[in-house]
Fold this sequence. Notes:
The protein is an alpha+beta fold. Helices cover 23% and strands 30% of the residues.
Amino acid sequence: MSVSDTTITFDDINDLAPDVFERFYREGKISHLVEDLVVTDRDGDGTVTGVIYGIVK
C-alpha cells in the first residue's frame, strides 16, 4: 500500500499494525473509515499494541 494523497480503503488497513493504525487515525488518514478509536494496550516501550474503534457508516 502506498500512503499518499489517494484515499485509503478498508482493504488497505486490514493488515496494519496497531501502532500504525493509531497513527493513521490520529493524522486523519483513515477518519473516513473509522471513528472513536481507543488505544487498549501498549507495550513496555509505549508502542500501541491494541486498539478498538467504530466503523463510519
